[in-house]
Amino acid sequence: MSSAASRPPAPDGPGSVLRAPNLPAGFADTFTSRYVDTGQLRLHAVTGGEGPALLLVAGWPQTWYAWRLLMPALARDFHVVAVDPRGVGLSEKPSDGYDTGTLAGDMAALMTALGHDRFAMVGHDIGMWTGYALAADHPDRLDRLAVAEAAIPGLSPSPPLFGDARSNDRLWHFAFNRLGGLNEQLVRGREHLYFAHQFATKAARKLPDHAVEHYVEILASDPDALRASFAFYRALDTTVAQNRKRKERRLTLPVLTIAGAENSGELVGDTMRLAADDVQSVIIPDCGHYPPEEAPEAMLAALVPFLAPYRDHPDGRTAASTPRDAA
């Protein structure tokens, strides 16, 4: 049987390039949705562009779509891979494996399946958690790491339970999302109320209605999607234990941290300095928790010079510039 015959059908659900709303002009001419079999599960990724490989991993409660405004510019210099991690979007949603060690292993396996032995990565929110785990657990795979808008459980100091009101507004969902089932019962049927509140209260520049509705539709359309969205938080005991061991060995690769001045500010840079020796920090004015959507031009302005040395001299690259079709 030919590889074309054995390849899974192209994704065409609501979370695919074909059905995502309001993409930049010409987006589908450069990027396509594809399913990638990692050997452990099937992941959905949106790929396109020429050059060394650049992996983009978004956070909760978003999908690959969070990167849409940056991807056309990045694709001029990189082969961009924007992935839905396990449990997200059109990717498979197993019952377990939401700790960052497993998530990082998924990303390494994804890039292997796509033919990229070495790559750079940008991670936002939970994608930042995964990026730290990937850099620590698979140091031979990652050339540069850019991360945005998160603290890292087990690395960052735990915030106090009786913190100030502003901190509570930013962090209360951590405890809620870790509940063992009551949260799903409370949110199911009220997905727009819960998730739209998250976007509204954490953004300094309002996200477009069509984007919020897109994320909520994906979460509301499948009971497994809602369950999986909480699974990242239910796995925090495992993730915290892993990170306590990871921080025994510091990262040596270059790290860029990006934060919104109206949300995390210095927290992101301070977090990565606890783990890495070579950290650059950028704080974007008038921006909240979602820099790729609130301030894409400013985020690109930070990413382009940081990634330029990798673009020009992708150390250890073998197949990165010639991606092969996934099996």
From TrEMBL:
The keyword Transmembrane helix does not apply. One of its GO terms (molecular function) is hydrolase activity. InterPro entries: AB_hydrolase_1, AB_hydrolase_fold, Epox_hydrolase-like. Residues 52-296 form the AB hydrolase-1 domain. The keyword Zinc does not apply. Keywords: Hydrolase. This is Alpha/beta fold hydrolase. It comes from Actinomadura gamaensis.
